[in-house]
From TrEMBL, chain A:
Transmembrane segments: 21-45, 116-133, 145-168, 230-250
Protein name: Transporter
Pfam families for the chain: ABC2_membrane_6
PANTHER family linked: INTEGRAL MEMBRANE TRANSPORT PROTEIN, SLR0610 PROTEIN-RELATED
Coiled-coil zones: none
Keyword vocabulary terms for this entry: Membrane, Transmembrane, Transmembrane helix
InterPro entries: ABC-2_transporter-like
TrEMBL record, chain B:
Keyword Zinc: no
InterPro entries (alphabetical): AAA+_ATPase, ABC_transporter-like_ATP-bd, ABC_transporter_ATP-binding, P-loop_NTPase
Organism: Microbispora triticiradicis
Domain of life: Bacteria
Membrane topology: Peripheral membrane protein
Protein name in the entry: ATP-binding cassette domain-containing protein
Amino acid sequence: MIRTYALLVWAWTRAAAQYRVSFALMAAGAFVIGGLDIAVIWVIFANTDSLAGFGPAEVMFLYGTSELAFATSDMLFGNVDRISQHIKAGTLDVMLVRPVATWAQVAADRFGPHRIGRVVMAAAVLGVALARLDIPLGRAWMVPVMVVSGIVIFTSMFTLGGALQFLLTDAPEVANAFTYGGAMLNQYPLSVYDPRIVQGLTYVLPLAFVNWRPGLYVLDRPDPLGLPSWTGLLSPAAALALAAVAALAWRAGIRRYRSTGS
Amino acid sequence: MIDAAELGRVFRVRRQVVHAVRDLSFHVAPGEFVACLGPNGAGKSTTIKMLTGILAPTSGRIRVDGLDPARRRTALARRIGVVFGQRTTLWWDLPLRDSLELNRLLYKVDRKVFRDRLDELCVLLDLGAFLTTPVRQLSLGQRMRGDIAAALLHDPAVLVLDEPTIGLDVVSKAEVRDFLRRRNAEHGTTVLLTTHDLGDVERLCRRVLLIDHGSLAFDGTLDDLRALVPGRTSIEEVVTDLYLSSRGSPRTPPLPPVPGGTSGTA
Ligand SMILES: Nc1ncnc2c1ncn2[C@@H]1O[C@H](COP(=O)(O)OP(=O)(O)O)[C@@H](O)[C@H]1O
Ligand SMILES: [Mg+2]
């Protein structure tokens, strides 16, 4: 699966490399867009010294860890939740007759190396925050664990979103009610699925594990809910559990796949 | 090589149940060349999708080269080649050569073996002129030849093609047919194709499967098919008759010949 993914990503990267200028512009664009969030944090702290008891460096740390996990996961695997496009275009049929993992093919398809811009911005923010925070080594080891767990969690959410689309395309009326309030029921026999909805959900739901609980541990803050601080260490376990659920859902989705009548 | 027994597939579309394929049984021996005919919506593509493991059957049993396609899809993918006339298996934005090379890596074909096979296919399918052209810029005929090459680079025992000649001009059609016939004769590759083009059938196959409303309406040689509807000489007329009678329409009397004939006047 890793080999398949790497081969396809390499092919797409080479295809993108033919358009160097556009790659540079798009990467710069992604970098700047990532920077806008930072500007917001900046504006807030121009007016106040602390946000819910957190200083600017601490907020940047919390933002940087989750954003780095999300941006990396989105760059590498974000395409798995665009699977409804493959279902509609019939390209999923083509992927299914190749002797390699479908998930890796979908994840690598149209790999966009320019999204590295947003990853770089997130890494820079996290770097600045860590430099200013001076976290002791005894708790700093949790930072990479947090980021990796975050990548696994976000990727699992993308995969669940993709698996859900197999079910939604099974029941067009449900899918359309979900996306368009049913207004376009007959125009779109298969669901046209808005990835932004799931992206919103994937960002909010697992944040507690990716970021908040372990973040409190790293920053050595008491939990406002009163949970003991070791619960902050549970994020890798949560990530693995979610990944297992996502893998099962994906497999179930592929088995339920019904292609399109042409 | 291919074994289908009481194969069935239903789709539930808004509370309605569509029997795309029902009670389909047939057997294809190694090295056979079989054409699958049938009107639009007969269930040909659905059958192909069950053969290749894309769709799981809802009833019955199917084996391809001894494997259950839906359960052993990836293992089967190494042993079969699949061509969809309506969509490409190549990467749209990559040059044809890169697409084929990527296939080589995905199918784990040895570099040396690959080069020999590609050389052979390049000659037979005349790919040389457009190997470096991105797939999206190829003509339909070129793309189809590229697709066929891609399906054969891992030297599959079975080649399955869903409407490979659809939309092709006369010359491209002839090239594809010639190639498929040679491949079947010289490599012993088992070929199963679906088509609406009766010319394909007359030039290629001894055996015809006629599918209508999801079930097998006829399985036999072309001559048997002709004998089924006496008084009809062309295969077109025979098949039209069978389609119409399966719909319950009365058999139309043979048309009188066009006055002045059809030859030499154009
Ligand atoms: N994914 C699908 N969902 C719902 N109905 C389908 C699907 N695929 C095929 N069908 C229906 O099954 C029947 C057979 O279709 P198909 O196998 O594509 O026919 P053919 O290829 O012979 O033209 C048609 O009535 C078609 O509408
Ligand atoms: Mg079809």
